[in-house]
Design a protein that fits this description.
- The chain is mainly beta.
- It folds into six domains: 3-96, Cadherins (Immunoglobulin-like), CATH 2.60.40; 109-205, Cadherins (Immunoglobulin-like), CATH 2.60.40.60; 213-315, Sandwich (Immunoglobulin-like); 323-400, Immunoglobulin-like (Sandwich), CATH 2.60.40; 428-530, Immunoglobulin-like (Sandwich), CATH 2.60.40; 538-640, Sandwich (Immunoglobulin-like).
- 7% of the residues lie in helices and 42% in strands.
- It is built from five helices and 49 strands.
- It is rod-shaped, with a radius of gyration of 59 Å.
């Protein structure tokens, strides 16, 4: 918003200028919480804000003439900044002139000379009185004390200044009155009226009766600013009807105390030719026009003079680049900020005028921001699309200001805007499924596997912690078998594992970040328990108590190949740890029996002798593990004449069925093939995951 107030220059400090709270439409009690700040564009603090009452107060006494000089308008520009939300308001305070200055002449006494042969109507220019006040408080008119020979004439200059001149009303006679004493009074238009006076002394001279005449007496010249030094401005056209020294004219500047010597520093005057040239740099922004008064004086006795008035108006050129002012910047900004969120307040100004001072702001189109014009020369930078810190953690924003001059002048300002992270990304495992292997009977605390996850967020939003979930697939909670390091994701065993009890575990792992609200992901680790040879073979048949023997009778005339019995054993382990072989323990004497290594069948190896004594056999069953474990059974075989055969008499040993003798070999080949295929598959899966 933009507010406008006015205040007379003679107000005392502490006086109220306006009710900000009311005009802005905000509650008084919110001014302090919204951190209302007052910023003066000129750097001087002439005003202050009463946060308790919501009023704009004078901080010091104002002097319009000191602040604005002779400018017809006098305004002070302020900026009000409020936060939560961030707002910028412009306040313009007009300083009203009061009649606090009386007119004053450059000199208290003016001495003029006039020839006695001067014709009625001859004019004697007078110096203009100065009044710092403006408008109706400035000089309104002049008055001259009553005189028989002179009257007062007031002319209007090109810039509106009234110029007094004394006009000869009646012919002079130097022999009667050689000197005339008059009083010139300058009156302003204030209430009450103030005035200033100067004494005018007119000496009546004889002889040189034709003054120099400037044609035209008032002229105007247009000149571009920044022209080179020495550029010709104009050549005065002055004529004097006299001859000789009385017609020889010399030129000089006529100055006054309102700006003594100001234009003389910028312009030079040739006293012989009347040429006016530049001798300093002209700047339209410093002053757009100059009033030059020239005195043309002849060399007669007494000398006569004429006066030329020249107004030099400068033409503005585009010689000033725009200026960018970053009033406020909100950095960092949350990545979930909605479109239209105000990021920065930017002001721009250009000292040139017209099109040269019209400025446009631009930013790169690919940025997710745009410029919105708040009011004249003030812009807001707002978001124009979604922000994503994971794609861009910050932006170097270059604001480019371009004026409308020809050629155009540009200025750019770059500032960095940081994007603050919000927890908008869940952690992500490198693989949703993993496979691990652990040896059974490993000590508690053995490392099994390490899972890893990543989170593109930052700070606490990317701080990850791991935990094991209960999947309900095992009867006992999975946490009784495994634990996980919450910081690095390493899975450890809690107790020794038994392959014969559990061969595989599914361990669901959850990773969670520390954001608010927290986000999480899950993965499953399949833990395969590797078998160890920790179980000895168990003889199922024949089943005899420990320390006892199994008694078996056979016919006394049993032939070789006769099946006596079969040892049946099992091993709780798996794989090669469960591959069993059968053998007879060596004895001192050779036995007429043999044991099939793979099947455990005990057969007659050679014909028995008549009246053979019972034989004691120790059959050992051994697995294929490392180290190998074994079990044994004692069998006592007694040949008898009338023994009933428990088993059918088998074929001769060389002619036994290949299917019966090679069954175990086929099983071994099948297990080896399956193991090789499994290893190849695991290798392929691992390669694809890596």
């Amino acid at each position: 918003a933009q507010l406008r107030y006015s205040v007379p220059e003679d107000r005392e400090p502490g006086s109220s200028v306006g009710d900000l709270a009311k005009d802005l439409g905000v509650e008084v009690r919110s001014l302090a919480t919204r951190n209302l700040r007052l910023v003066s564009e000129g750097g001087q603090r002439h005003f202050q804000v009463d946060l308790a009452g919501g009023a704009l107060l004078l901080n010091s006494r104002l002097d319009r003439e000191a602040l604005c000089g002779q400018s017809p308008t006098c305004s002070l520009h302020l900026q009000l900044v409020m936060e939560n939300p961030l707002q910028l308001h412009r306040v313009e305070v007009d300083i009203l002139d009061v009649n606090d200055n009386a007119p004053q002449f450059p000199k208290p006494e003016v001495v003029l000379e006039i020839t006695e042969v001067a014709n009625p109507g001859t004019r004697l220019p007078l110096e203009v009185a100065e009044d710092p006040d403006m408008g109706s408080n400035s000089i309104s008119t002049y008055e001259l004390s009553p005189s028989e020979h002179f009257t007062l004439s007031i002319n209007m200059r090109g810039d509106g200044v009234k110029m007094p001149e004394i006009v000869l009303e009646k012919a002079l006679d130097r022999e009667k009155v050689a000197v005339h004493h008059l009083t010139l009074t300058a009156l302003d238009g204030g209430n009450p009226v103030k005035s200033g006076t100067a004494k005018v002394i007119i000496h009546v001279l004889d002889a040189n009766d034709n003054p120099p005449v400037c044609d035209p007496p008032i002229s105007k010249v247009y000149l571009e600013e920044n022209v080179p030094v020495g550029t010709l401005v104009t050549k005065l056209n002055v004529t004097d009807l006299d001859e000789g020294p009385n017609g020889d004219v010399e030129y000089s500047f006529k100055t006054s105390n309102n700006a003594p010597g100001k234009f003389t520093k910028l312009f030079s005057l040739d006293p012989r030719t009347g040429e006016i040239r530049t001798k300093g740099a002209l700047d339209y922004e410093e002053s757009s026009a100059y009033e030059i008064a020239v005195r043309a004086r002849d060399k007669g006795s007494p000398a006569m003079e004429g006066h030329c008035h020249l107004r030099v108006e400068l033409i503005d050129i585009n010689d000033n680049s725009p200026e960018i002012v970053l009033t406020s910047l909100s950095s960092p900004v949350q990545e979930d900020a909605t479109p239209g969120t105000v990021i920065a307040l930017i002001g721009v100004k250009d000292s040139d005028s017209g099109d040269n001072g019209q400025v446009h702001l631009q930013i790169a189109k690919e940025l997710p921001f745009k410029l919105v014009s708040s009011f004249k020369e003030h812009f807001s930078l707002v978001t124009n699309g979604p922000l994503d810190r994971e794609k861009a953690s910050g932006y170097n924003i270059t604001v480019r200001a371009v004026d409308s001059g020809s050629p155009q002048r540009t200025t750019q300002k770059t500032f960095y805007l940081r994007i603050a992270d919000v927890n908008d990304n869940a952690p992500n495992f490198s693989s949703p499924f993993d496979t691990a292997h652990v040896q059974e009977n490993s000590l508690p605390g053995t490392s099994v596997f390490s899972v890893s996850a990543s989170d593109p967020d930052e700070g606490s939003n990317a701080k990850l912690s791991y935990s094991i979930l209960h999947n309900g697939m095992q009867d006992v909670p999975i946490s009784t078998y495994f634990r996980i390091d919450q910081d690095n994701g390493t899975i450890y065993t809690v107790r020794a594992l038994d392959y014969e009890q559990d061969k595989v575990f599914q361990v669901p792992v959850e990773v969670k970040d520390a954001g608010s609200p927290a986000l999480s992901s899950t993965a499953v680790v399949h833990v395969f328990v590797l078998d160890e040879n920790d179980n000895a073979p168990t003889i199922v048949y024949p089943s005899v108590p420990k320390g006892s023997a199994f008694h078996q009778t056979i016919p006394a005339l049993a032939e070789p190949g006769y099946l006596i019995t079969k040892i049946v054993a099992v091993d709780a382990d798996s794989g090669h740890n469960a591959w069993l072989s059968y053998q007879l323990q060596e004895t001192a004497e050779a036995l007429p029996f043999q044991v099939e290594r793979r099947s455990g069948e005990i057969r007659v190896a050679q014909a028995l002798r008549e009246s053979e004594d019972p034989h004691r056999l120790v059959v050992e069953v051994r697995d294929n593990g490392t180290p190998s474990l074994s079990a044994s059974v004692v069998i006592v075989i007694s040949p008898e004449e009338n023994s009933v055969q428990d088993f059918a008499k088998s074929l001769d040993l060389p002619k036994s069925s290949p299917k019966d003798t090679n069954l175990t070999l086929y099983l071994i080949i099948s297990l080896v093939s399956i193991s090789l295929v499994s290893c190849v598959m695991f290798a392929v899966v691992a390669a694809r995951c890596l």
